[in-house]
TrEMBL record:
Gene3D superfamilies registered for this protein in UniProt: Dihydroxyacetone kinase, domain 1, Dihydroxyacetone kinase, domain 2
First and last residue of the signal peptide: none
One term of GO molecular function: glycerone kinase activity
Domain DhaK: 6-328
InterPro entries per the UniProt record, alphabetical: DhaK_1b, DhaK_dom, Dihydroxyacetone_Kinase
Protein name: DhaKLM operon coactivator DhaQ
One GO process term, biological-process aspect: glycerol catabolic process
Amino acid sequence: MKFYNSTNEIPEEMLKGIDLTYPQLTYLLETGILYDNTYNEKTVPIISGGGSGHEPAHVGYVGSGMLAAAVTGPLFIPPKSKNILKAICQVNSGKGVFVIIKNFEADLKEFNEAIKEARNEGIDVRYIVSHDDISVNAYNFHKRHRGVAGTILLHKILGAFAKEGGSIDEIEQLALSFSPEIYTLGVALAPVHFPHQKTSFVLAEDEVSFGIGIHGEPGYRVEKFEGSERIAVELVNKLKAEINWQKKANKNYILLVNGLGSTTLMELYSFQYDVMRLLELEGLSIKFCKVGNLMTSCDMSGISLTLCSVKDPKWLDYLNAPTGAFAW
């Protein structure tokens, strides 16, 4: 059982609860739009969104120095384009609006429709498609390139830069240079559980699935669970093969250890310790690290690991800059 009245009502009730908790945040009823009512109209607003079930993403990252607004849809279903358009119009002050979209077909459809309509109305809208997932399809081994936990790094860096006064052109250039450096891979010990619904995949109590998705998608391989360190080795090796850091001069990296919903902080920090030891052996220097349930998959028991090369020292300044977002 879960602490909500119905799966249909929980996103609306959650957003009403956030509105009542944080005076600086305002929820527009029945739209999925949560916006920062203290937003500085002299700066370019950053917005993002997607289906509910990934909390604290994206609503938890609305606030000064991050998102000006987030748009939330039903469980694992993106918001409708009409509501995304309303969010764009809500925060637009004539300096342009920058949108962060996770790379899923349904999300792209709704966000692109809204962006097209906003542009038709004369609003300068730019966007970036987050595609940090390096998992592969188990049947054809094609890269999935989904937008997953690394997306919140875009929220923070672009939001901090916008707060500094970056123009829409400058924000777009920063997004295009930063986004390709983000790489993420996830693993699950148990799938998502919705009341009265079948799980999207099944694991025995002693099994682990590598390469799962944030909507409960199964991974590319199932193995017997052999401890946190073994999982850390798999994820680090896969990220190493993708990033090729052994052939690159820059050894400075950003690290995210993300819980997928029901993974405890005790587990997350234990896993982070395993990862940090491996990265030290690889000669990498972690300049920024964040651990927590940052972009979840409802109550999935799992972890994702994100690494991002620090090509510009200013990126670290943006990550460390203060923010009013309650979940950062």
